[in-house]
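User: Design a sequence. Structure:
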């Protein structure tokens, strides 16, 4: 059973890197691809992330650092544009596992949930709205749009999860591995600086 879970994690990791799937979708697709029974215990996200890092090291070590830097720079640009909403970044672009197939995920902490939509409209950004997935803390909607990334020569998806301002208190909690699960613009800029000096 443990071997199957490792296979599921490895297959899910390949789908995350090559197709840009989120972890949940990748795990369910891996389960189907491997013909695992419906009640099979799926690997946790930490196991998938570990396999994602291994897959990148093996197959994308030459291209991924540059792609990650381009995505982080694009994310920082949008975090600066949306500074009034206290943006925090999370996901693959934050944790360093992003490739050109990855989207950018930002949390916005708003006094008024509609204010972020108004800011996008004022910038002429066309976006889609969908209900936020279940999770800790109250959330209103996710605003999604694509924006050009000149360094990568393609459009990148950006997803803005609208959070109530009060949820900001828990924004910088650390995960089980001791690392912060999201960061503000200053923290992201520091990571970009570290990459430039490496």
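Assistant: Done.
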């Amino acid at each position: 059973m443990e071997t199957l879970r490792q296979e599921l994690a490895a297959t899910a990791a390949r789908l995350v890197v090559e197709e840009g799937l989120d972890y949940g979708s990748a795990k369910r697709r891996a389960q189907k691809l491997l013909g695992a029974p419906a009640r099979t215990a799926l690997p946790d996200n930490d196991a998938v992330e570990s396999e994602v890092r291994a897959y990148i090291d093996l197959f994308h070590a030459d291209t991924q650092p540059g792609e990650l830097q381009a995505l982080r720079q694009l994310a920082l640009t949008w975090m600066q544009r949306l500074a009034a909403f206290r943006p925090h970044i999370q996901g693959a672009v934050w944790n360093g596992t992003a490739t050109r197939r990855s989207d950018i995920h930002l949390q916005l902490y708003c006094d008024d949930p509609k204010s972020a939509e108004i800011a996008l409209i004022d910038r002429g950004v066309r976006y889609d709205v969908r209900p936020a997935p279940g999770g800790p803390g109250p959330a209103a909607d996710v605003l999604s749009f694509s924006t050009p990334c000149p360094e990568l020569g393609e459009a990148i998806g950006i997803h803005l999860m609208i959070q109530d301002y009060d949820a900001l208190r828990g924004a910088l909690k650390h995960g089980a591995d001791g690392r912060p699960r999201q960061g503000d613009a200053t923290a992201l800029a520091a990571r970009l600086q570290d990459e430039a000096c490496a």
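Residues 64-197 form a domain with the Beta Polymerase; domain 2 fold (CATH 3.30.460). Strands lie at 88-90, 104-110, 128-131, 139-149, 154-164, 182-183.
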